[in-house]
Specification:
Two copies of one chain form a homodimer. Chain A is mostly helical. In chain A, 68% of the residues lie in helices and 0% in strands. Chain A has ten helices and no strands. In chain A, helix 1 crosses helix 6, helix 5 crosses helix 6 and helix 7 packs across helix 8. Chain A binds a DNA duplex through helix 3.
Chain lengths: 223, 223
DNA sequence: AGCAGCTATTGAACTTGAGTCAATAGCTGG
DNA sequence: CCAGCTATTGACTCAAGTTCAATAGCTGCT
């Protein structure tokens, strides 16, 4: 262990993209932490968890790897903290939109959904990353899972004869697949719902989805 | 590079859990590959992607790390191949159940859903892993994302006055959240659907979900 | 039967990236 | 202006994925 340490921005810094917060060093703890979280929100939205190395994060923040570990005990923790911020913001945004007054419930619903969609539009990438439930999400895997959903939805669409270009109907079908997946997981976890009931719920929701999308259900009802 | 190689099961093998396929070595390519995929299905269902090391896989298969790399170019590829098998089986199972005859569509729907639920019941863990869209899925992150969903669903449930113990209603609400998430992603990706339309679809589906779950909508319709 | 060649299989070495730690530099109050 | 606290650093450790030349076990041919 010979000559070590050279904190601070002497000599040849600034050379490799470490340009953020140019004033440089020794921020107050809270500021640094906030800065890192904000940065994490950006970075994790743009890149996958494990494509983003600690070194890259540190470089982007203009600090050393060690310092990052001073603020977050591990890369995971850093990531989790980041996602937590995103989740809090999503909840806050929708809360603010719908909790305020005592307007008619349907109006509140409309406002809440609007706030939600605003969030999606604004933080597109981050939102998607959030829903992917994090870490990893190999593109190939996503494609596979997505392909499976498409196959299921497409099968039904074909059977019913949904028009290929009917965006609303296709979105509704995809959404229904989402409904089926989530309720399946929920059903599996809590064991308090009969399988029959669940199946009926799913079937009813498919009809509702098609109906809401304006699909002609004549064929379904018929033979 | 001095004295190397000692393929085969001489001496002290069998000692560390390398007991699978006891006959041992030099399987035909297809058999090995099939064996490894089947094993992967088990292992990845039980453990997270990155909690499962290549060494652990090799040990469980009773082969060397190198051989695994002979069959799959990387850990990722191995994982992807495994998920692909699962997806194929899911599609095949539902296909078989619903494609056969030309019975009434509603009956086919029922059969298809039954097949789906069978799959979920049988491969519970693997199914969940598949839907988590793979790699990673840190438990803390899952809890966070799940908590966010719960918060959203709970907010609505409270507003409407859903009974705390009403499993069907809660499942339906959770499912609706899934619907909202999936359609949001879809809306964001394909740009062919108006925001208004999407919001209306979501709202209609919430009512449908509550209705299907037998919740009294009197309050919603009223002031 | 025995040998030759093909290839499944191995073990060790290489590489990369996460996590650790003692040393140092920059504030801040006395 | 110095002393002490702490934000910050850079090199080191370690685990896990990946590579590769060497080897052993089949398989068919003579």
């Amino acid at each position: 262990m010979a000559s070590k340490g050279r904190p601070g921005r002497s000599a040849d810094d600034e050379r490799k993209g470490r340009s953020r917060t140019p004033e440089g060093r020794r921020l107050a703890v809270d500021e640094r932490r906030a800065q890192l979280l904000e940065l994490g929100l950006e970075l994790f939205a743009a890149t996958t968890y494990d494509e983003l190395s600690i070194d890259a994060i540190a470089r982007a923040a203009g600090i050393s790897k060690g310092l990052l570990y001073h603020y977050f005990p591990s890369k995971r923790d850093y990531y989790v903290a980041t996602v937590r911020v995103a989740a809090e913001r999503l909840l806050a945004a929708t809360e603010a939109a719908s909790a305020d007054l005592d307007a008619p419930p349907l109006v509140l619903l409309e406002r809440g959904l609007d706030a939600y969609l605003d969030f999606v539009e604004r933080h597109g990438q981050a939102y998607a990353a959030l829903l992917r439930s994090g870490i990893g999400s190999d593109p190939e895997i996503l494609e596979l899972v997505d392909g499976t959903r498409s196959a299921l939805a497409g099968r039904i669409a074909a059977r019913i004869g949904v028009d290929e270009g009917d965006a609303l109907a296709h979105t509704a079908l995809r959404g229904w697949i989402g409904f089926v997946e989530v309720t399946s997981l929920e059903w599996q976890r809590r064991r308090d719902l009969g399988r029959e009931r669940l199946r009926e719920l799913m079937a009813a929701m498919l009809l509702a989805a098609l109906l809401a999308a304006g699909v002609d259900l004549g064929e379904l009802a018929g033979a």
